[in-house]
Fold this protein.
Amino acid sequence: VPVKAVKKEDVLVVPSGTVIPVDGRVVEGRSSIDESFVTGEPFPVYKVSGDEVTSGTLNLAAPLEVRATKNGDESFLAVIAAEIETSLQTKPALQKKADTFVQVLLLGVTGYSFVLLFATGSLDLMATALAVLCPCAWALATPTVFASGIGRSARLNILARGGEPLMTLQEVKTVILDKTGTVTMAEPKVSRLIPLAIEAHELIHIAASVETRFSHPLARAILNCAREQGITRFKAVSEAEDLPGRGVKARVEGHEVLIGSPETLQALGLHIPTIECTGRAIWLALDGKVQGGIVVQDVMRAAMANLAAALREQGIERVILATGDHEESEAKRVAERIGADEYRFNCKPEDKVKLVKEHQSHGKVAMVGDGLNDAPALAAADVGIAIGGHRNVALAIASSDIVILGDDASDLLTIFKISRKMAGVIKQNYAWAVSFNAVGLTLATFGFLNPVLAAFLHHISSVVVVANAARIYVGRDMRA
């Protein structure tokens, strides 16, 4: 059934491992939902009967029955698509300005050649003026640079929707960065072990043994930590059971193991020590006694450290971190690591759009993101940049002006370098065109050129412009 055909109050069955297609409310079942694509939160959220779910989120654990609270064409996904289309239709075309100028110049050249004819009566002078002043170099000055810049970007796995977004980058004053999946990896990692009654090595060994039976993000984080500590053989596990939204439990070598949130263990009457940590703490209990804790957090991309300073070197005046995280401490931690001027947390998609428009009053704004929740802001910004576009190329291309296909955050700096290089070459091309036409016009007016030589010089002028633009494509490495 097409999503557009779904009506309010319809009930849909959403199997585990599938995307929830409409906004609705759970009427039967319980499961963990991955909302990172919508909210930016990297950790799953537990949903039970009566809880609301959003289209575009992923059902991880168990089947759900969901009653639609909106028509399919009014869902979150549909609204996002409409906002993208509206925003993209408002963007101007830089090339139109260049084309208009060339048309005006062509009229001027034609008029001047007739002035020469009437003043001197010489058809040779008229033909010479037309040949030397034909504005081919002007017409090629911008599009050849656009083509070269787009080609160079493509060689670096960066896709640009035309040359205009690349050129606009050099005018950007504010860069707004999404956190999850952009500044961070959107994949939790163990940052700290808190051993209480057992050694840290034994703590992670037991936890990893249990998590071999599961595939959720926290399980992968714990298993990766165990492997980093050289643990390759795991303990015997039986009776493994997922407790959606609360944790997991199993028997390990005859002992009952429970791994879960502080709330889960406290509900069983277990004491959880008070600790200060950045990230999310989960605790392990063995036979009804808390043995230790494991802190996980979303890991920053290495290239993002001190990113703001690198962007300021490219002429950016303000760097802002915007995240859907509910905890201010996490937003503050990441903002400090990248050197952002300010941060906003608990941002909904419409909040990010407002943030973009707020700063557009002070200059051009670039929005950098990767998630569905970033799509309206990407489209509303003067330049929308999607990182990690290989994960959802269709969405990235639909909502963004520039798509960085890989996960290398340094490519963000690279496109700013390409933009500034393009701007410099365009100025050089126009400077050459002005100089050539000024000298050529003088020589033609006083009879120092004939039509054949003027035509030859005209072609040389065009070749110079094209060759200069080609330097962007074949020039030195511009990777950050």
In short: The mean pLDDT is 84. The chain has four domains: 3-74, 112-144+421-474, 150-184+301-416, 187-299. The longest helix spans residues 410-445.
